[in-house]
């Protein structure tokens, strides 16, 4: 997992050197998350709702394509205290803008670092995929909706059952400069 996190950072810095235009911004929003259990009878667990915030760089490659690495705090897991974890996530989104930049679609990988608990039966690193749709409200304001689909088991390998984080995010972005 550390290799994946390092690889994402390398992609970020190499891309910065070849980019045409970089726009920096901040993002805040709401999360609705839950754990998706694998090979387990239906487990009832409530959603966990919370607030996210982060910073990002939107790196223009062409008129339509950009790469947007982001560093964000995101509460994830389930609504039960023992299954609620907070993560520092690093998504790297590959975006395609259309309709004169008013709408953008994107996908990309995300590495997450659990930031507040140790020895609780949860892995410290998780990996997921992100899909995004973004709408331009005015020159520097955007709203977006994202779905994060967990690829890695959030529980330690010696524990059963297996589960992944699945998160819906609704956010507001402001391009600072």
Describe the structure in your own words.
The chain has an eight-stranded antiparallel beta barrel with strand order 1-2-3-4-5-6-7-8. It is globular and about 50 Å long. The chain starts with a helix and ends with a strand. Helices cover 10% and strands 62% of the residues. It has one helix at residues 2-18, and strands at 21-38, 48-60, 65-77, 84-98, 103-114, 125-138, 141-150, 162-175. By secondary structure, it is mainly beta. The chain contains one helix and eight strands; from the N terminus they run αββββββββ. The relative contact order is 0.22. It has a single domain, classed as Porin, CATH 2.40.160.20. The longest helix has 17 residues, at 2-18.
Largest sheet: 8 strands, antiparallel, barrel
Span between termini: 32 Å
Instruction: Give the CATH level 1 class.
Output: Mainly Beta
Gyration radius (Cα, Å) is 17 Å
**Count of DSSP H/I helices:** 1
CATH fold-level name: Porin
Helical residue percent? under 10%
**How many structural domains are formed by the residues?**
1
Low-confidence stretches: none
CATH architecture: Beta Barrel
Shape: globular
Strand content: over 45%
Q: In which order are the strands of the major sheet placed?
A: 1-2-3-4-5-6-7-8
Mean pLDDT: 90
Structural class: mainly beta
Number of strands: 8
